[in-house]
Q: What sequence folds into this?
């Protein structure tokens, strides 16, 4: 069996992630004040996806995992994007 490796994150990397997440949260709050129609929901989902990737990569240590696990997670994101795209197509064609 493969020996388990321990990945220790520094406090500065956690601080950078915190700052990035706070900036993205404030941007998503500011987006709600603008009247962009259906695009505001799409932009909010895009920002949420970036925040999810930041949390997955840093706090769940996905950047230290194997390529297979990264591809599985990317597949989930692709499936999620397809569901959102199909939902928006249905919304626009009604």
A:
């Amino acid at each position: 069996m493969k020996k388990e490796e321990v990945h220790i994150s520094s406090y500065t990397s956690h601080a950078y992630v915190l700052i990035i997440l706070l900036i993205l949260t404030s941007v998503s709050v500011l987006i709600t004040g603008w009247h962009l129609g259906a695009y505001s929901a799409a932009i909010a989902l895009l920002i949420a996806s970036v925040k999810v990737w930041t949390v997955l990569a840093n706090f769940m240590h996905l950047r230290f995992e194997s390529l297979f696990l990264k591809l599985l997670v990317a597949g989930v994101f692709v499936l999620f994007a397809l569901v959102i795209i199909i939902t928006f197509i249905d919304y626009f064609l009604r």
